[in-house]
Structure formats: structure tokens, C-alpha cells
């Protein structure tokens, strides 16, 4: 599906072509650049832009197939980006990963989305409100998309951090489910690392390109503003990878701590159980003694022998209870 | 055994020589390149190609001996590749590793296979259907073989991933066999890493060669299409190493989690066992009390003394059962 | 809030302007450099300096937003520093992190503080007492601030080291709370690493700048004294990262050791409990024997049968006690 | 002891001098190169070659002292190699490390052996059978020695691999000695890593030397055959380090798995023991009940009361046995 | 305190000045170089040399303050070294760290010692006995000091190795104190790593300096002998770091192994305790049976009923004992 399809000249939307063919004509007539948004495109749609913009065949295949790792690949006529945006699903306390592919050329940016998020329409609206920036061409649009994707990692990181806080509470409150939750969260954190880490290299490579003197892809030479913008995204990515890496460490520590707490728990329970066993057992000893069949056992003939024995049982039990209570075993 | 043996000129199969000697003659007459497929070759067969194409002696020894690590070695007259293809055996839930050796020269590609897989015949048929690509010479044939080997890792990765999912289920369902399975799967994952990781360097080295200006091995200068093709294989290898590395981490976590779950299990069982011990023991206490030999024990003379004692035993047992049930120990 | 606001010429405070506008005028008139200290500035205050000194917009946004990772970012007109000073709160045995942002230009240093510490007023007073150093311009003031921030890490490191010593005592004294404390301290040590580690790169980058021949930011060429000063800070940072990294290792070891100690503890308790169980149980055996109803049991008819049985019980119990004591189980 | 001592000209043994002095004379007369094999040399013997060939004093000291780490050190007049060959002692299932030192010059190779293995005599005989290779001078002899040392690691690696297989069997068969064996084998694997790992750098450095254009140590310029030979050794070393590194990982995993298996074992034993305790205890409960002294207990007066009670005991015991058997506790 | 204070010309001690001022005069008169040994110097003493030799102020502060990490810092007029020598205290089985600071200039070497060891007086005597080496100037003296410090690590490494051997014995003999000892030894090993590791970089940096062509600090160009000497020290440092790194690994393994052994121990004890519980309990069952009050129990009326019951008890106990002994539980 073609979600949006416009040609921008000097940062302003100059045409809302009704079909891709019209877009290509307008673009050739007025120059400027085309920004085309596709959502789960049909092979035909992808084929049309591929032919018009001479997109690299292998990258187009990747975009159709999906399940790409986050990466940037430079081809002769275009640069291909695969991004793995993420969303935190509050209800399920789970991270969901999407997939966005971008083709960047001298006069076009084509986005291929496979999931609802991220909201690239909003990105476009924000850019259209800033014609000065948009006038810098497809690289500015690329920045806007990258910025959006990276910004959307922030709530994911916050959600995972919140999960870790909850896990810590569960950990020290003896919740048995916590080992499963730690295991599953580490799995998600690893997936998040796989999504975010490659962006560090992607953004460093973009920065190096922008620092290079004038060339085909940026004929006006390095643009300071754009370079700072990309650096800002780079900085956000670094902040996120920092956090995510520390999450992994924390979860590892939580796992080890949990093992120890479980053992400690067992120690405490063994003490408690043994205490109660002793408290229950002492009366039995008394009962066994007065169950002996000796002919000459004075207590047996006392009128108050039975209450005496029962009292002895209770007294011993209570004494043991007090002893264990004092030792902290109960 | 010589599986297939053909000379290609301008991407088309021009001769089906009946013997190696004929191949060598045809090759000298018509130029083009020879693509020879050997399967567990006799020393004589290997000797013939070694003499004709001046293959490096040490590499030929390696190819005869087998059990090579995945690698690429450049010699003066040829480049030697050792690949470790893999198959996932569904029945045994096991990864099986094969071995393929390749000799690449200016006008030949010789493959030496030691196992059934991979199906190099299919690779050849696919290439013969694309003469434009095959016309690029032995490097194109090399690409086709590498692509096949790397593509065949995908089902292996899927199989291992499925094993890990099963292991996770076993883990949280308390299956005792899981530690053995984790241990054995990590061993396979390590073998898979040893097979796949060296390919990253091999493909980077090939890419660097292809980026270099015109030279003896590619006299026409860098070929963009071929370079992109090799990069595509490189990308697949990276995707696979990413996955395999994360498998290792996951299995490590599973091992640690399992240790904790086993301890937690023990805690629960100790509670359960102690509860039943207490439930069994309380009646004994009652019995011991009424087994005492005091002269003056009113209950002993009651007509309903015995049923009363039995009722007391059951009541106490039931009371304890309820208490433990409520505390979640049973 | 504008905490302090002065213009320095040749290392001496030449003006105490009442408003930022006055500062800017004075600066233009007398040259020298402005050192402006802001504490949780209003957007208007930050706006004024941003316009006057042409501060980079993205960095100003970061400074307003806070929660930056420690870093240095060079922009065309200014260099932005984000620092994470730390304090050790003795009462709570906790590390508290602050945040300081700096903008360094050819003729200004602007500090933006978000927390009480560090005491930058003190830094300024110390520098005003050393006009020779201050005459070297904003870089000297930057050095003074960095030096203060790094020096303030020393008591934090000492505090954490003290915590680790306490943890070791708790560890070998069997304090149950120690696993929680280890876990929480590792979390703080990780936060400390995140605050301190980036400074290594920041200071190496500054050193490289200072080693470079004369240029716009230091027109007089490399200043040996300043370079040595920055190297001194660098050395302190390295000393701190060394210590902090080793803390992490120590805590990891403490966690593993604790797990073993808990198991060892359990072994000892099981031995102790079993010993007492045996001591309690042996008299029961004696009692059970003399509770048998055999017609011909000589002891039952002895006058001293009952004391004999009781003596036997005590003797057996005492014998077992001695045995277990000797084996070190009690 | 001087084990062998010969001068080679154009790859042929031309003299069997009776003393070192004669060797030196022959060498000066006929050129070629000397290959001298020493076994635990006396300081005098070492002194003679040191003076004649101007060996570096510090390296000679190292060779006398022994206990060197594997390394290569270039001095002005000679290059010093310390190698750590290894043997697998089948009887003791232990790896034994030897030590060989080599001095390589333009016209000599001196080997100093401190242990029986490796068999350098055999290396010499093999080389003397290949005069073409030996004619390439001392570097060819060096290659032969390195090749022998590296080849002798293969049975060691196989032996350790076999140990690991045995350990895995012990592991899953519950052999208690396995933790000691794992610990000791990891110690040996670490020693093996220390012996083999430095060879990677040594061989890379040799390869770089051989790739360099003509120079004093190889006046004829790079020799392709020799370079391929050294690369072959390099490849073997890489294969061995790969295996040895994976051994370490495997043993680490075995250690962790073992800890879990021990806990799991405990769980199973606790269940078994508790089951038997319950089976033994139930008859006691029955016995206690019929030991009560109630006046009105009908069963006590039954003629078959006693067999009934015994039957009840057996029946309950058997019922419990069946229940536990079904639950898999027994 | 000024321990020694001499001026050397052409490798010979030419003056024993009575005060620092005299030293400075002699040095100016006769050239050569000054070698001054300070032990816990007063600020005044340090001040005198600082002024005379123009020592870098920040390094002098470090030398006064102590607690420096091992490092080398080049200043304009001098190079500053901080070393952390170590001693193994046999009595306490503990490693003690000292601190030595060195200032190296074109015509001086000043050592500042803060602890008894290392014995720098002995270093000086050894150097004075080798005027040829000493004639090479302050660098030769620096070599001698470094050599001494590094040589003194050898007994420390041996001591720690011995501790590890003892720990291994304790480990497999079930000594409970071993976890504390492992923990504390790892702490020392980490401190040793911090002392030794930086020397690798220091010596590599010195080597690079010595390889450089003639310059101010070594006007005669690279000196081969000195370079080999420093390389020898470098090699020793590498040998030590290798050992120390492997100690850390070994202790880590020992910690993990210990945890498993403790669990295994528990398994064995639980089996032993349960066996004895069963042996004790069976007679109780017999006693309980014959304590039942059935009217018709033939055994009760046997004359030998009582001995029969006692015999039954013993027989059952002995039978169980034999069974458990055979299963290896006792």
C-alpha cells in the first residue's frame, strides 16, 4: 500500500501525485526529491519504484522478505537501511519489534514499513512544518525517520527498567516466579541489544560521510546543522545502548542473587521445620516414658500423674518454642 | 569420483568432456573456465587436476586429509577454501557437519566434497540457467557455492532455535533431562560458531579483493554486481553469527536458571514432605499419650474413649492438612 | 538562577555585571572571558546566553532536559560537556549522582548545575586566587571544574570501599542481608562506572587537542602547564576507574562466595539438627523397649527398673552428645 | 650434550665434525649452514657456540635457566625461539610439557632441548631426505622443527578431547570424582593455552618477515614454498588453539552442569529417603494406636486382632510403596 | 632521608657529596649524572631536587602523597615512574605492596622509596660493579631498578602459587575455611594484577623510545645492549602477568568447584544421616509392635519373647547397616 507519496522542492510539498508514475514525472520535471511511504507493499508497487530509482535488487529482496538485522548497506545508486523499531506493550509487559526499511538516494527517500509503528506519517508532518530543514533533501528526511525510531526506544527502555524494578521487589520478597521472569526479560534485553547496537555503527558511518568534503551524495559539502542532528541521534543511541547493556548485567546479577536467596530460604525453612519437629517430638518422649511397663513407677500411681505428664509435655514444648524463637529459628 | 566436469565459455556450457584430460585440452583450446566437481576423489584424480592447474601441494594435502577448520588461503596459483556446511537432522535433533573444499583459479573452480550435502549439482544447474552471471567466471561459481552453503545454515539455525524453545518449556516444567540437553546443545552451538565465524573474515577478505582496481584475478576491474552478491552472502553470515552467538548466551542463562529452579523445587518438596510428616506424626503423639500407664486416666475408662482418640487423631491430622494447604505447602 | 557571573581579563575579575546583558557588553568592551554559573536556569536565562554566545541548540536542549550521559561534544562555536558528579551519603550508605553541564568557547565558560554539589563557587574562589593560571582563559576554568568533579569521586570510592569491607565482614559472619546489599552495591558501582568511564575518553580527547600546534581554540599553541594539569586529572580518573572496576570484580566474587557459604551453612545446620534428633530419639527407643508387653521381662520387676531406664536414656543421650561434639557436628 | 652437529651445503650434509671447533672451521671454509643439536648442554658447550655465532647473552641465559614462556625474540645477530612442546601421557591421563630453545642465524640453527621429546633427530633425518628444501638454509630447518612441535600437539589435543568425553560420561552417570577431574583438566587446558597461543603471534611475525622483499636474513627475497610451509604450520596452530579454547568453554559448562546435577541428585534422594521414611513410619502409627490403654477397644479382644494389626501395617506400607513408585519417587 | 647520593662520570662513582647542594655543584662541574636515593623524604629534601632538576610539580606532589597506581608519565624535563613492588610475607601468607617513585632526566635518576623493600642499595652496588653498563647513563640505572622490582615479583608469584596449591588440597579435603581463603587470595591476585599489568605498557613505551633514532634523551641513538636489557625485563613482566592472569582463572574455577563440592558433601551427609535414622528407627518399630495390647499375641507369653524381640531389633539394625554399607551410603 502506498501510504503517502509526495515531491518536495526547496522544502515545500509541491505535488500530491495520484500514482507512482505521476510522481516520477513530477520529479523529473521539477527536480526536488520524492518521499514515498509504503506499507507492506505489493511486489508490483515495489517493482515500480525499483525500476524508476534503479534500487539495488538484493536490497529490494531483503525488504520484501523482512526479518533483516538492523544494518546499512551502500549500493551504487542508493543506500539501504534496515531498522528494528520497538514498542513496549504495557498490558503484556513485553517488547514488540517492528521492521522499517529505507532506500536513500540523491533525490528520493522510500520507506517500507511492515508494522503499524513507528508512525512515519507524524514524522512527515513534523518535517513539512520545518521547510528549512526539509530543503536539505532526502538526508534530512532520513534524519527525521531515524530520530523517530530512536526516540521510540526511550519508552521501551523505561518499560524494561520498570520490569527490572519489579523483578528486584519480587526477588527480595521471595516470589517463586522471578527466575522465569528474569530469564524471559534477559531474552528480550538481548533482542533489544540486537536491534539497537548496529545503529551505533550506522550513525558513525553516516557521520563520517557527512564530515567528508563535497561529493555526489551531498554536493554542497558537509552541512553543519544536519551533522549535529545526526550526532544528536547518535548520542541518544549511545545512551540507550549504555542502559540496555547495564540491564543485561543487572539481570545476570539478579539471577545469581536469586540462586543464593533460594538456598538461604531453604536454610531458614529447614530450621523452622526442625524446630517444630523438636517441639512435637518432646511430648512423645514423655509419653513413651510413661508408657513403659515397670512395676515400680511412682508417678503412675499418683492421682495427678496424668495431668502432671500432660503439663510436662506442654511445658517442654513451650520451653523449646521459646528457645527457638529466641534463636530466630521460628 | 568426478561428479561433474564442464568447460564454460561466455557463461554457456560448451563441453562435457569424458575425462579430465579432455577437459584440460578443451580448456586450453576454447579458453573460458572449467568447473569440476569431485566427490571423495581418489588420490589419482586429485593428482591430475593438481598437475594441470598447478594447485598448491599443501592445500591439496589438506583437502585429502579433511577435518579442516573453515578458512581461506591464498596461494600463488590458486585460492583454497575450506567450508563446513551443516545440516539439521530432525529425527535425532542433532546438527551434522560436512566439509567442502574449493580451489579457485583464474580459469577454474574445483570443488571437493566429503559428504552428501550440500547439493552442489543444484547450484550448478541454477548457475547454468543464468549465463550472464556465469559469464563472470570462476568467481561467480564460487559465489554460487558460498551462497548455497550459507543458505543451508538457515534451517540449522531454525532447528537449534526450536530446540531452545523446547528446552525452555522443559526448563519451566521441571524436566530433569534438561541439563543434559542444554549441555549437549551448547556443545553443538559451539561447533556451529566454529563453522560459521571464520566465514565473516573470508567474505570480508573477498570483498576487499573485489573492491580493488583491476588485477590478475579480475582483469576487468571490480564488478559491482558480483560485489553486491558477495556482500549479500556476507550479510547472511552476519545474521547467522548474530543468532548463534545469542543462542550461546541463552543456553548459558538457561543453565544458570535451571540450577535455581532445581533448588526452588527442593524447597517446595521439603515443605511438602515436612507437612506430610507432621500430619502423620500428630496421631502418633495422641496414641503415645493414651498408651501411658497412669492409673488415673479418665479417658481410658470411657466407653467411647477409643473412638474419641481416633477422632482426635483424624481431627488433628485434618487441621494440620488445612493449615499447610492454606500456607501453600501442599 | 544566575549564581555568579564575571568577566576576567588577564586572570583578574574585572567586572561583576548585574545582568547577563551587562556581561555581554563588558566582554565585548574589555575582551578577556566570561565565566557564568547557572543553577537550574530558567529557559529565558539559558536563552540569553545561547543567543549571545551562539551556543549549539541541541546541546542547550540536552542541558535543559538533564539526564545526560557523561560526554563531550564539539560544535562549531562551543564544546559541550556533561558531567555526572557523585556524593557518598554516609547516613544512607548510598551514592547520589548530580549533573553538571559546561559550555566552553573561546571567551566563555558557562556552567549549568542541576544539584547542590559540586561546589563550583569554591572552584571559582580557588581560581581567582591564582590569576596566573586563570589568565590562560576558559580552558583553565574548565580544568578547575573537572578537577573538582574528579576529586569529589575520591570520597565516593572510599565510601564504597568501606561498604565492601563491611560486606566482607557480613559475608563471613553469616549475615543474611548480605546478598541484598551486594546486589544493591553492584548496581551503584555500575552507575559509578557509567559516570566515570566516559571521562577517560573526554580527557584523552582534551589532551590530544592540547598537544596539537597553535589553533583557534588555543592560539598560543600548546600550553605545557595546562597540559600537565589535564593529564593529572586524567591520571586521577584512571586511578578511580581502576578501583571501581576492581570493586565490580570483588562484588561478583562476594556473590559467588556467598552462595557457597550459604550451602556450607546448611551442611553444618543439617549436621547439628540431625545430631539433636539422634540425641532425642535414643531415649525414645529405650522407652519403646520397656513399653513392650512381654510377660517375662526381668527389668520390669526390678525395684530400680525405672531409675535404671531413665539412667540408660540419659547415658545414651550423653554418649551421643559426646560423640557428635567430638566430630564437630555440635 | 651435543646430540648432532653437521654442516649442510646446498642441502647436503658435507661434514660430521667431531667437535664444535671443527664445525666452526668447516662452516667458514665451505659456507652453507650449521645445524647443531644440544641436549641439556653444559655451560661450556653453550659458551662455545655463543662465542662462535655471537649469540645474544640474555637469550643464552634464558636457554640455560629454562622455564621460559613460548616466545620469539629478535636480536641483532640471531633470533631466539622458546617452544613448549607437549606430550599426552596415556597412563596418567596427564599432559607433560617440555621445552625447546632455538637460535636462528643466517648460517646456523642451534636447538637446545631440555626433555626427551620432541624427537629432533627424526626431524633432521626427514630434512636430510629432502635436500631441495634443506638447501633453503636455516629457515627450512626452523620450519621442520616448528612443524614437528606443532604436529606433536595433535595427539595431546586428542587425548584431552578423550578426557572430556570421559568426563561427560562421568558427569551424567553421577560419578562424584568428576568435579576434581574437571578442575584438574581445566588447569592443564590453561597450561596448553599458554604453550600454544604465543605460537600464533610467532608464526604471524615469521610470515610477515617472509613476505618482505629481499633482505639480510633471506637474501633471495621471499621464498614462496617456504612461506606456504610456514603458513601451513600457522594453520595447524590456529586449528589447535580453536580446539583448546573450546575445551575451556566445555569444561566451564561441565562445571556448571555438574553443580546442577548434584542438586538434582539431592532432590531425588530426598524424595526416596522420605518415601522410605513414610513406609517405615505408618506401621509405627498402627502399633501406637493398638498400644493405647483404652478399656473398650474391641480389636484388642479379637482372636485375630494381632494378625489383623500386622496385616494392616503391611497393607499400609505396601500401599504407600505403590503410591511412591507411581509418582516416580522410588 | 637521603639514603645515597652520588655523581657518576663514565660509569665510575666520582663523588660522595655530603649534601644535595654539593651534588648539584659537582654535577655541573664534572657532568656525568647524579643518582640520588631518597627514603620517605621531607618536603624540604624533595624541594631541593625539584628546584635543581626542574622536576614536574604535579609528579612531585604525587610522589609526596603516595598511593599512586603503577605508571609512567613524560614531562618536559623529566619522566616520572610510579612502581608497586611487592613482597610475599611467609608468616602471614600475605602479599605486601610497597611504592617506589623514580624521576628520570638526562643527567639524573632520583628514587623515592616509601617502604623498606626493594633494596635499592643492592641495585646500586651491583651497578657500580659494572661501570661499562653504568656509563650508559641514567637509563642504565633505571633499567637496574626496574629489573630489581620485577625480579622481586618472582617470589611473590611463587608464594601465591603455593597458596593455590594449598587451597587445592583444602578444596578436595573438604576444609570449610577454603572459601574465605579463595576470596581473600583473589583479592590479592587482583591487587597484584593492578601492580604488574601497567608495567607492560611502561616497558613497551620505553622500548619504542629506545628504538627511535638519536634524540635529546639518548643522543647516541639507540643502544642495542640497553634495548635488549629492557626487553628482558619486558619479557619477565609478561611471564609474570601470564601467571597472575592464570591464577585468577584458577581461583575462579576453585570457587565454582567448591560450591559443587559443598553440595556433593551435603548429598553424602544426607545419605549417611538417613541411613543411621533408619537403623535407629527399625528397633522402634519392633518395640511398638510388641507394645500393642492385643489379648492374643503369642510372642508376649514366650519365655524367650523378650530376648527374641531384642535379637530381632539388633538383627534388623545390622541388616540395614549392611545394606547401606554396600550401597556406599555409610
TrEMBL record, chains A, B, C, D, E:
Family, per entry: Belongs to the CorA metal ion transporter (MIT) (TC 1.A.35) family.
A single GO cellular-component term on record: plasma membrane
Signal peptide: none
Pfam families the UniProt entry points to: CorA (PF01544)
Reaction(s) this enzyme catalyzes, per UniProt: Mg(2+)(in) = Mg(2+)(out)
Record lineage: Bacteria, Bacillati, Actinomycetota, Actinomycetes, Micrococcales
Highest taxon above the source species: Bacteria
SUPFAM superfamilies assigned: CorA soluble domain-like (SSF143865), Magnesium transport protein CorA, transmembrane region (SSF144083)
UniProt-recorded name of the protein: Magnesium transport protein CorA
PANTHER family associated with the record: CORA FAMILY METAL ION TRANSPORTER (EUROFUNG) (PTHR46494)
Keyword Transmembrane helix among UniProt keywords: yes
Its job: Mediates influx of magnesium ions. Alternates between open and closed states. Activated by low cytoplasmic Mg(2+) levels. Inactive when cytoplasmic Mg(2+) levels are high.
